[in-house]
Design goal:
Helix content is 0%, strand content 47%. Strands 2, 3, 28, 29, 30 and 31 form a six-stranded antiparallel β-sheet that branches. Strand 12 and strand 13 form a beta hairpin.
Length: 354
């Protein structure tokens, strides 16, 4: 599950930001949220970037607690947690800088949240969501109309999708074939899982525990799919043309990226010289941002344009050990990419690649 919400805690000045560093014709800006921990597994995670260059995400403090943040294009950072939060995860943001996500209460229950551009919080709890630890509501993504897509986990541990209008009206749904047991069900994708027109993409887990992709149209019609050779399909999001992308695992346990076009045709892709490829976000023009793993288990970033051309990159200072490296999470319409990189000590740091 994911985490976070609360009242605006503080607004900080430029946060330990490193000057942009050129890499070919691109530049990389690194940053850390003040108060982020400096031990392994702690630090700053830049999760989503919108067209004006604003980045949102979360940071992990020295006591292991998650908190949300919003960084503007000039580098100024606002930190936040919803009231009562024991851990905040920010997952979605629209162009108006409204942010969605979830936070955990003292019982370990998740509550969805909407943080307005002015910093006001609205709690989101879907009727039917469980009240125990590991249950509750997760708000994943938000579009320009203020609609929110996410999922809730019921008392039996089953996930169900939902769409919330700006006025608060809720529609719940389950993808065809979604399982009805604990750990099964329907889960829309994060940051770009909802279009401005109201289409939703995500993954559903069947009764055998196998995840499959789905696309729900604005009219509520479903298409379910798997790339050829997939034994596990994970959808990361879609763009305004309803092009869906994500990753899948083959029978040998290898990860591959995929792109599902309108009409249902699916293209599989792999970054050259990689042993695993993950597609994480697709922008309006069809460019994909993601990560790939080399033969040493190190992560590197990539951008794949609509013609299949790759640009590979690694953030200076990223670790070169297994499980370390560069992890792009999202890209905007200008091609800027945000995400975390993991250093040699296992600490997370934020970056923007332009």
């Amino acid at each position: 599950m994911k985490t976070r919400i609360s009242i605006l805690i503080s607004v900080c000045c430029l946060a330990v930001t490193v000057w942009p560093q050129p890499q070919g014709k691109h530049k990389i800006t690194k940053f850390n949220v003040p108060g982020a921990g400096t031990a392994s597994g702690q630090g700053t995670v830049g999760a989503g970037i919108v067209d004006d260059g604003s980045v949102m995400g979360w940071y992990i403090s020295s006591n292991g607690v998650y908190h949300g943040f919003l960084r503007n294009p000039a580098g100024k950072i606002a930190k936040f947690d919803p009231k009562g939060s024991q851990g905040t995860h920010a997952f979605g943001m629209n162009s108006a800088l409204a942010i969605t996500g979830y936070y955990l209460d003292t019982a370990g229950r998740a509550h969805g949240f909407l943080r307005s551009p002015k910093g006001r919080f609205t709690r989101i709890d879907v009727p039917g969501a469980g009240k125990g630890s590991g249950q509750g509501t997760v708000a994943d993504s938000i579009n320009v109309k203020g609609e929110i897509a996410g999922y809730y986990v019921d008392p039996k541990g089953v996930s169900h999708g939902f769409l919330r209008t700006q006025g608060g009206k809720l529609t719940t749904f389950d993808a065809p074939g979604a399982g009805k047991g604990s750990g099964q069900g329907t889960s829309p994708a994060g940051f770009d899982g909802l279009t401005d027109a109201g289409a939703i993409a995500g993954s559903s887990t069947d009764s055998n525990g196998v995840p499959h992709g789905f696309l729900r149209t604005p009219a509520g019609k479903f298409a379910t799919f798997d790339p050829r050779g997939s034994v596990n399909t994970f959808v990361s999001g879609l763009n305004s043309k309803e092009t869906v992308m994500g990753s899948y695992v083959d029978s040998n346990g290898a990860f591959h990226g995929f792109l599902r076009k309108v009409g249902g045709a699916i293209i599989s892709f792999d970054v050259p010289n990689s042993i695993g490829t993950g597609g994480n976000n697709i922008n309006a023009g069809g460019t994909i941002a993601g990560d790939y793993v080399d033969s040493n288990g190190v992560f590197h970033g990539f951008s794949r344009d609509p013609n299949g051309k790759y640009t590979k990159f690694s953030v200076p200072g990223a670790g070169t050990g297994s499980g370390q490296g560069t992890l792009p999470y999202s890209n905007n319409s200008t091609g800027a990419i945000a995400g975390p990189y993991v250093d040699a000590n296992g600490v997370n740091h934020g970056f923007v690649w332009q």
